[in-house]
Amino acid sequence: MASKKLKHIKKYIPLYIMMIPGLLYLLINNYLPMAGLVIAFKDVDYRKGIFGSDWIGFKNFEYLFSTEDAWVITRNTMGYNIAFIIINTCLSVFVAILLSEMVAKGAKRFYQSAILLPFLLSMVIIGYLGNAMMNTELGFLNKSILPLMGMDPVSWYMEPKLWVFILPIVYAWKEVGYLSIIYYSAVLGIDTEYYEAASLEGATKLQQIYYITVPLIKPVIYTMVLLSIGKIFRSDFGLFYHVPLNSGTLYSTTNVIDTYVYRGLMQLGDIGMSSAAGAYQAIVGFIFVLISNLVVKKTSPDNALF
Amino acid sequence: MLGKSKNVLRVLSLLIAALLMFSACGQTTTPSASGSEPGSAAGSSEPAGEPDELVIGFWAQSGVPTDYQMVIDKVNEILIRDCNCKIVDSVALNIGNYRDQLTLMLSGNEHLDAFVAHYANFATYVAKGQVIELDDLVAQYGQDIVAAVGQENLDAGKVGGVQYGLTTVRDLATTRGFVFLANVLDQVGVDYSGYDWNKKASYDEIHDMLVKIKDGTDLVPMVPSSAGQKLYDTLADFDPLGDANGVIMNYGQGTEVVNLFAQPEYMEFCKRMRSWYQEGLVLQDAVTNQDGYADALKGGRGASYTTNLKPGFDLKTSAQMAQPCKSIPVVDVYTATTIVQTAQWCIARNSVAPEAAMKFLNKMYYDEEVANLLAWGIEGQHYQVIDEENRIIDYPAGVTAENIGYNLNLGWVFGNQFLDYIWNGDSPDLWVQTDSFNKNAMRSKAFGYSYDATPVKTEVAAVTNVNNEYRTALEFGAVDPETAIPEFLAKLEAAGIQKIVDEKQRQLDEFLASK
């Protein structure tokens, strides 16, 4: 038994060696800092050092839950992330299939690059692009598009309701290109014989997509969705801070946990309270991954992560 | 299975061992740093010893100029000769990044000795023990600082009777108001000659000027001075007691701390701005504006903005904007702890040579050569004296504002500004004027009290968010105060503003009793 195991290990020694840098990185970057979680429960005093500071229980967490904003930021964080997961997954699978069905090589490359481009832009730049569109006095929408349709100008940055739609649109525009390339490569991995057999049997294009493509890339979809669910309590800071140009009037629909913490603590610079927010997000995110993995395991065991 | 769990155990114990090693390192550095203090003190008393190495920090709006190191080398020559220390590194960033960077450096164990603290952070540094007590160091090495600043103003740097910060000598009071492009005022026929730092205008007079600008030009009469500006702060006639969550109204001439936003003055201010906004006197995108005043005014979009004023302001700003500017105050000259604390030198807990840091500070407060080097650069290279008697300087031949190698313009940060030469164009009696500005200022009853937000930081975090949500929009008139202020107040109440006000009142009462 033992010798068999040893042989097994020997066989994979090169692979184990290749694992070392990655493991070291994980250890140093992701595991060692976990000791810093204690900061969330400490009243940090630099004279005493981090580990010598007084324990204060959950006091650092209080500000996250102390006001009615707690509900707003939790709702916004969860709501937008759920919307992003659904919209972006559907759209990018759709785009991936369209790409794979494209015959002209040149056009395919062009579209691939064109939809990927927004992903490479910084959110700060996207914020300004948004401003170029939505600026009250000089924006493209108010100056050119709306008058063309005979509509009155809109104060885009003063109307919280509109942002429920603006944010998902901006995020889809930015992210779909990247996601669709992942799904596209999964589609490319499907053996063409399935399609040949299907078309011999007289299946239409739509039937082929529905019965072959989608089921076969399902594992990838599951993995990607599970990964995003793990981040459901985190939000893209740039999207929620730079794109609405930090407009206070929009907070009811644009404030999320990350921006709330950033705005609240910029003045105080309190690392205890910031760590508390980080710990809260990490723990809730972890729980979400466990739950959703459990659900997947129950419904389709092969696609569960662990 | 058993083997597997054994492996897990092994990994775990390895992890713990690694952690212990790290934490042990963290602990040993502290005693060794403090242990070196007596050693360095002994070293500095012998001139032959290696000079102590100092890292200093200050904010620099435009970053470090090209000849900065050259100037520091000159300063170091004097410091090595007289104080046996030298500046080896400087943290010089624009104010926003500077405050973040300092928070990081002070939170970690990075080498930092003397640095300029912003008032918004000062009390927090003290509460967290990130800066050291200065009384003994000042008594031993810093008597020239006391002579230059004066005990009364030094008191602004005390917390609980202990000195933590040393204010620089500069304008230690403020007035606030509007800054106009003078050409625009001329063009629309406004007579502004009568206004001065001791002659303010009423809001109605300002309103008439803005209307004339709107009718006579295609400029936006008034623009924000920065992104997300809280307008009322730059036109404040109250003592903000740190962060304006809980203030003393009427220039701090009382001892009652109140919620500013629940005061009739606030409603009146917002209503006035609302009507200005609706008349088109204020930038319609004020809430989302990302430009600073300089971009807006130089770029030909705006005609005025609001800010804090002081003697010599107009000439300075005119130079910056490359066209004549005229400031018109709307509040009286007054001073409060927060105003004096705008620039205070502190010594970090991380300092490896606090004595040397204090000697450097002392030198900067009384040595004309050091002060002028830091303020203006090297004589003959960055400036030349054109009037020895009045101490006036100007650009040397061939040097202009565009190609000068040293232009920090931070005389007010580097110790004692009254030692500095006066730039040609500024009034020759600028420092005399500034001195009388300081001496004539109305002094808040709470002067000397530093607000420590630590006991109410949960509430401060929540209230700050509510402030950001409403203040900019309300104060630039983008929303209707009649409906928005009650909403704002309800949210502030829920966020716990009363607790902050009560805590400030408690701290203030304690301070007043101890006086």
Characterization of this structure:
The complex is a heterodimer of chains A (306) and B (515). Chain A is mainly α and 306 residues long. Chain A has a single domain, classed as MetI-like fold. Chain A is 69% helix and 1% strand. A two-stranded antiparallel sheet of chain A has the order 1-2. In chain A, helix 4 (69-101) runs parallel beside helix 8 and helix 8 (160-188) crosses helix 10. The radius of gyration of chain A is 24 Å and the shape is flat. The termini of chain B are far apart. In chain B, a hairpin with a 4-residue loop joins strand 12 and strand 13. Chain B is built from 20 helices and 15 strands. Chain B is an alpha/beta fold and 515 residues long. In chain B, helix 6 (143-149) crosses helix 15 (354-366) and helix 18 packs antiparallel against helix 19 (481-495). Chain B is globular, with a radius of gyration of 25 Å. Chain B has three domains: 34-170 and 333-446, D-Maltodextrin-Binding Protein, domain 2, CATH 3.40.190; 175-228 and 289-331; 235-276 and 453-515, no CATH class. In chain B, the strands form six sheets. In chain B, strands 3-11-6 form a three-stranded antiparallel beta sheet. Chain B has a three-stranded antiparallel beta sheet with strand order 8-7-9. The chains are: A mainly alpha (306), B alpha/beta (515).
Short description:
Chain A is mostly helical and 306 residues long. Chain A has one domain (69-303): Orthogonal Bundle (MetI-like fold), CATH 1.10.3720.
Helix content of chain B: 40-55%
* Beta-strand content of chain A: under 5%
Helical run tally of chain B: 20
Number of domains of chain B: 3
Top CATH class of chain A: Mainly Alpha
CATH architecture of the largest domain in chain B: 3-Layer(aba) Sandwich
CATH third-level topology of the largest domain in chain B: D-Maltodextrin-Binding Protein, domain 2
Arrangement of strands in the largest sheet of chain B: 3-11-6
Structural class label of chain A: mainly alpha
Q: Please tell me the CATH architecture of chain A by its name.
A: Orthogonal Bundle
Spell out the CATH superfamily of chain A: MetI-like
Query: Oligomeric state of the chains?
Result: heterodimer
Overall pLDDT metric of chain B? 86
Strand fraction of chain B equals 5-15%
Rg of chain B, please?
A: 25 Å
Tell the overall outline of chain A.
flat
**Average residue-wise pLDDT of chain A:** 88
Low-confidence stretches of chain B: 1-5, 18-46
Distance between the amino and carboxyl termini of chain A: 26 Å
The CATH topology of chain A corresponds to MetI-like fold
Order of helices and strands of chain A: HHEEHHHHHHHHHHHH
